[in-house]
Amino acid sequence: MERYSFHFNARRSVTDYKKDEEMERKSMQKCIKIISPCGILGYGFPKEPFLNAFHERIHGIVVDAGSTDAGPHKLGANVSIVSRRALKKDLSIILEKGLKHRIPVIIGSAGGAGAKTHVELTLEIVKEILAEQKTHAKIGIIWADFKQQTIIDALEEGRITPLSPNIPSLTKEIILDTKTIVAQMGHEPILKALKQGCDIILCGRSYDPSPFAALGIYHGMDPGLAYHLGKILECGALCAEPGTTKDSILGTLYEDCFTVQALNPIRKCTPTSVAAHTFYEKEHPFILHGPGFTLNLENCEFNEIADGIIEVRNSRYIPDSEMKIKLEGARKVSYRTFVIAGIRDPLLIHQLEDIERKVLQQVKSYFTEIPDEDYEVNFYHYGQDAVLGEQEPTPLKGHEIGVMFEVLAKEQELANSICANVRSTFLHYGYEGRKSSAGNLAFPFAPSDIEFGPVYEFSIYHLMRITRDPFLLEVVEV
Amino acid sequence: MVKLVEIAKILRSKNAGPFEITLDVLFDEKQTYEEVKNAGVITKETIAEIYNLSPADIHHLVYFDQALGIKITIARKISSGSPGDRDVYGAQQHAPLMNLEI
After folding, report:
1. Mean per-residue pLDDT for A6-25?
2. Chain A interface includes B56 (CB < 8 A)
3. Verdict on whether the full-model pTM lies above 0.90
4. Is the CB of residue A334 less than 8 Å from the CB of residue A456?
5. In whole angstroms, how far apart are CA A119 and each of A78, A212, A246, A366?
6. Cα of B95 vs its chain's centroid, Å
């Protein structure tokens, strides 16, 4: 077991008088204030807390729009995770405020996966809003797409390594199968856009904290504090209590620390909520790897310096000896058709797995001309072990089971045909001891079979060593 | 003996990238956290057993005093959203930890 022993910094028990003194000292210092309206652009946020933040001077609005969390489909199929309507709704509020106050608006991982089509969709919406608001802006667009050949060259030069031990090594064949490849940018290309005076910066795939860090670094602040603040702000108000990705949060960078505070009075940050958020969705609690650096948060201190204002110190930025960026790519692996049905008959529930095996045998004996390797059928039993699968320690058998079965096949037509046959065979299968001779499955919908379309997998999730900034900045005036 | 779910403030799971799942156990009192830490129950061996993994599939198990929390990062057998995956966000993989007796 790894056990780290820290210098535990007990929360200071400061009196209100001391808190006031601290706030006064802070008010004299140079500071950079950044608003993050929500955790993902298009998730939505209450307007009032966001607008109220502008009673004081704000230096920029930064919002993350992407994630790999929702799986490889967005990147592979070039689709967005939020609706176009929601994207436009959120962006209209943000752009109006940003342009009015003449402060930069930075969007990280535009459109969800941050590939060309995602950035183009966001740009199209931005232009629409500018036209509707009858205003103009200088827009910086930073592309994060990579050509297959660039990755093949890097592979042949030994510049590519998997990100964790359970990721397969990359091959030329996999790269050629992967149509869309992006990499996560650091703050460098965003800094370039800020220096060129862009009002709106649309970033392709970015390391989530980078757009926040870029704004801090642009104003001469410490990169360790700027990135750590970015890590906390990129999820919106998730670091407050109660936490949510659908509300605004305010971050303030000082020369030797930063503070975080909720903008909506129904939420409040605490030292634990902010420290715990440093933890969130990262493989290690205090060592964070970013593009070209490591963030060491081992000696960070989290203190409440005024009601709901949490101050963080000692975040350390350590540049790596080599610049490496994280590549992401998704390839199509099959087509899916699936069915959802309920089973209520206890005689059937009792021998479900066995019946499914027999149904499959019957399907295979019908489609003898189709090779086994051309398709696969999977059954999921909701109410039993659908979520954890073979890792389920406590198999529950209730009075009903939601069964979902999917067929994955080389072609969509094949998936549809086999799924239809699995469904009809299962529906009418005459198992041992059956009394319900009219049918085995309760379908909630007609039609029962749902054509899902292509299925993707993350085929590239590797580090690539680079020697120069590969992210291209394009500036347009609209 | 008490179950982990009864004393933890937060007990959650989430993807840490598409190939790993990270489990966070957070407490709201330093004393409870210290007791769990000192009990020595949450180890790579225990996690491997509960999740039916080999110890090598447990990439990190770290106690983080400032946050009064424990982070455990495990390898996914199937990457997020690939055929055969059951939990794209990895958001419901924490349940087996809840009944761990401390």
Report:
1. 57
2. yes
3. yes
4. no
5. 10, 18, 22, 47
6. 9
Nearest-neighbour CA in chain B from A277: distance (Å):
9
A405: nearest CA partner in chain B: B84
Contacts of A16 (CB under 8 A, 6+ apart): none
The pair of structure tokens assigned to A266 is 């129904």
Give dist(CA A17, CA A109) in Å, integer.
43
Rounded distance, CA B63 to CA A28, Å?
Answer: 37
Q: Which residues contact A105 (CB under 8 A, 6 or more apart)?
A: A60, A61, A62, A63, A94, A95, A98, A99, A199, A200, A201
- CB–CB contact B14 A73 (8 Å): no
The whole-angstrom separation of Cα A321 and Cα A169 is 23
- CB A37 within 8 Å of CB A46: no
Q: By the CB < 8 Å criterion, does B34 face chain A?
A: no
Nearest by Cα to B83 from A422, A440, A407, A414: A407
Is residue A385 less than 8 Å (CB to CB) from chain B? no
| A384 or A2, which is more confident | A384
ipTM for the predicted complex: 0.91
